[in-house]
C-alpha cells in the first residue's frame, strides 16, 4: 500500500522538465560543435595522433547524445530523449559534409 492510498499526502515529483531539457540541449550542442572539430583535427593531424582525434570525435558525437537521451529517459521526458537519439545521425551528416568540402 502506497502512502497516498494510506491517507497520507501524495509524494510530489520534484523534477523540473525545463532543467532536463536544458541539460540535454547543452550536451547535444556540445556534440554538434565538438564532433566536427575533432574530426577536422583528425584529418589535419599527422600519423601519430590522428587515431586519438578520430576516437575523441566519435565518442563526443555518439556518447553525448546517448548520455542526454539517458538523462531525459530517467527523468521521464520522452520528447527530449527522442530528439537526443535523433542526433545520432549527425556524425553521418558532418563526415559527408567535411569530405565534400575538402574534395571541392
TrEMBL record:
<feature type="transmembrane region" description="Helical">
    <location>
        <begin position="81"/>
        <end position="102"/>
    </location>
</feature>
<keyword id="KW-0472">Membrane</keyword>
<keyword id="KW-0812">Transmembrane</keyword>
<keyword id="KW-1133">Transmembrane helix</keyword>
<feature type="transmembrane region" description="Helical">
    <location>
        <begin position="20"/>
        <end position="41"/>
    </location>
</feature>
<feature type="transmembrane region" description="Helical">
    <location>
        <begin position="53"/>
        <end position="75"/>
    </location>
</feature>
<protein>
    <submittedName>
        <fullName>Uncharacterized protein</fullName>
    </submittedName>
</protein>
Amino acid at each position: 500500500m502506497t502512502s497516498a492510498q494510506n491517507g497520507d499526502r501524495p509524494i510530489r515529483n520534484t523534477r523540473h522538465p525545463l532543467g532536463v531539457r536544458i541539460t540535454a540541449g547543452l550536451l547535444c550542442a556540445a556534440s554538434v560543435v565538438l564532433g566536427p572539430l575533432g574530426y577536422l583535427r583528425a584529418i589535419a593531424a599527422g600519423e601519430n595522433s590522428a587515431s586519438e582525434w578520430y576516437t575523441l570525435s566519435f565518442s563526443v558525437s555518439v556518447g553525448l547524445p546517448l548520455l542526454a537521451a539517458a538523462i531525459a529517459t530517467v527523468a521521464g521526458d520522452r520528447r527530449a530523449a527522442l530528439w537526443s537519439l535523433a542526433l545520432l545521425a549527425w556524425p553521418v551528416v558532418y563526415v559527408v559534409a567535411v569530405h565534400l568540402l575538402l574534395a571541392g
